[in-house]
Amino acid sequence: MTDIPRRAVSRTAKLAALPLGFAGRTVLGMGKRVTGLASDVISAEIQQRTAEQLFSVLGQLKGGAMKFGQALSVFEAALPEEIAAPYRQALTKLQEAAPPLPAASVHKVLASQLGPGWRDRFLTFNDTPAAAASIGQVHRAVWRMPDGTGRDAAVKIQYPGAGDALLADLKQLSRLGGMFRAIQPGLDVKPLLAELRERITEELDYELEAESQRAFAAAYADDPEIFVPAVFSASPRVLVTEWVEGTPLADIIADGSEQQRDEAGRLMATLHLSAPARAGLLHADPHPGNFRLLPDGRLGVIDFGAVARMPEGTPEPIGRIAGLALRGDADEVMAGLRAEGFVSTDEPVDAQALLDFLRPMLEPVAADEFRFTRAWLRAEAARLASPRSPAYQFSRQLNLPPSYLLIHRVTLGSIGVLCQLEAKAPYRGILERWLPGFAPVG
């Protein structure tokens, strides 16, 4: 593979071609409408063809397109199966078949980051990458410890020019909002892309990632449920960490037993809710590729490039207002949301209607146990995203304060993974333990 900047022209051309194909299909739909074909059939056909083209192009790209595809993948459980299926296939190909960086280029990066004697720092180093990511690839090696012994290691090496490619791809993808709305009405990808742009600088800095990983590792040291690998060495473009052996969550989703899926979901929820309290950080990239189910039953976490710094933990109003909603206290829910900026102080909003809008979202914690399913998420997505839905109309009266944007996105992403797992667990009990302000119900 040539390095990323040389591929920019080809990549940009592929991305730029997407809106043209979408425009052609929209005209086709208008033509069929004239002939009397049902509008829902036309819409489904346009959705299907648009999805196939979009995911096909994303599947040929690296950089920002891959990062965006990973971020969007956690929401695929909300898409109709005929659209989600080709999307899953494209992402699988994307992650398994990305062209590797040649060994000579790998060695050059290692020499620049670890020094000309970089080979002496390893007992063995495999030139064939074990995995590819959006901005780099991972090699398996044996790291030489200070006492001369070896430890199995994962060596993450950043592609030359990855930063420029990421920003260029995200700029192109930001022009495709209309296409995503065609696939899923009500889906607005622009805030997601804006947030991804803000985090690019952090994700490109492996020393910053190492700092976050060390903080997580300290918080979960000797934990019986969550495993965070040690950091052996970090430089701006090379990160060496402990190798994690386990079953990827994507495999659990595809072929895991019900018991495995339920346990993976419980552990995912535990990590998501406990990390702000324990580490002062929130793992902000909850897609299945970042997690492993270990042979001893723990959840292994392997990527800390995207984290939210939450030194005060999860904001207390989130738990308090959720508890009030479950207890049916409409006026207090209204007051709490208004104080946090979710409800405008100028617009009149019916408190009971607001509570009715929120209660279905809290169904997973209204009972002792709940099974997340794709069907549940699709129904909830239809309720909230369809312009003809009363809930959609009501949602237009509400705001999402900037301070809550990342928490909201990560929570939605985690729920998307739980729905892919179709995991049953005692989610309310996990909230009662880890979410500040969330009082037991009943």
Automatic annotation (TrEMBL):
Pfam family, one: ABC1
Segments traversing the membrane: none
Signal peptide: none
Molecular function in Gene Ontology: ATP binding; transferase activity
InterPro entries, alphabetized: ABC1_dom, ADCK3_dom, Atypical_kinase_ADCK, Kinase-like_dom_sf
UniProt key word Coiled coil: no
Keywords noted in UniProt: ATP-binding, Nucleotide-binding, Transferase
Family: Belongs to the protein kinase superfamily. ADCK protein kinase family.
PANTHER family: COENZYME Q8, PTHR43851
Record's protein name: ABC transporter ATP-binding protein
